[in-house]
Amino acid sequence: MADGVKERLLDGVDAVKELVRRYVEDFKSQTGFFKAKTAIILGYVAVAVLSFMFIPPPGEHNPLGARIKVGTISFGSREKAFVEVTNEGGTMWEKAVVTIQGTHVRNGNPQPGVWAASDRVRKNEKRVFYADDFRDKQGFKPEIDVKVTRVVLEAEGQVYAKDLAAKGAGR
């Protein structure tokens, strides 16, 4: 019985070799245009495969499985900053504390600051915190067009920080 399995396996390997040999011969006989298109497609596939291999999946350096997006909404001559937090983790966050660090202009003077907001975020829920949801330790809000340079999310005893200043983001 083992000889029969071995024979079938060797026949299968020979069939694959023959198939590959025929494809290589067919490819060699094609035009340069076809070869160029094939090279472009294979290059795209290689880039896609390498991207999946080397780009860490969400949550690898993010113990909460959170996704954080910082942006602005236009309000006439000013923009209103927001932080969007998505809970892609496995549990609900009973008390998620979102802390932003940044700079805002008050009375013509740029002022750095740290502000925090908290709320419950259910599993797979997207929660948006606007600039006026945040407060500093004295209870003051930042200006609505605060330039956010860092976001820290604390929930369930875990911390995830996203530094935006290095990427030039936050606006």
Give an overview of the whole structure:
This protein is α+β, with helices and mostly antiparallel strands. Helices cover 29% and strands 39% of the residues. The protein has helices at residues 2-28, 32-54, and strands spanning 66-75, 78-87, 93-106, 109-121, 126-130, 147-155, 158-163. The strands form 2 sheets. A 4-stranded antiparallel beta sheet has the order 4-3-6-7, with no helix packed on it. Strand 6 and strand 7 form a beta hairpin.
Give the SSE map.
Elements: H1 2-28, H2 32-54, E1 66-75, E2 78-87, E3 93-106, E4 109-121, E5 126-130, E6 147-155, E7 158-163
Antiparallel strand pairs: 1-2, 2-5, 3-4, 3-6, 6-7
Looking at the structure, the CATH topology of the largest domain is Immunoglobulin-like
CATH architecture of the largest domain: Sandwich
Mean pLDDT comes to: 85
Low-confidence stretches: none
H/E element sequence: HHEEEEEEE
Using the alpha-carbon principal axes, give the shape.
Answer: elongated
Number of strands: 7
End-to-end gap: 70 Å
Q: How much helicity do the residues have?
A: 25-40%
Cα-atom Rg, whole angstroms? 27 Å
Largest sheet: 4 strands, antiparallel
Assess the beta-strand content as a share of residues: 35-45%
The strand line-up of the biggest sheet is: 4-3-6-7
- Number of DSSP helices? 2
Q: Return the domain count.
A: 2
CATH top-level class of the largest domain: Mainly Beta
What oligomerization state is this entry in? single chain
What are the main properties of this structure?
171 residues, alpha+beta, Immunoglobulin-like, 2 domains, three-stranded antiparallel sheet, 7 strands, 39% strand, elongated
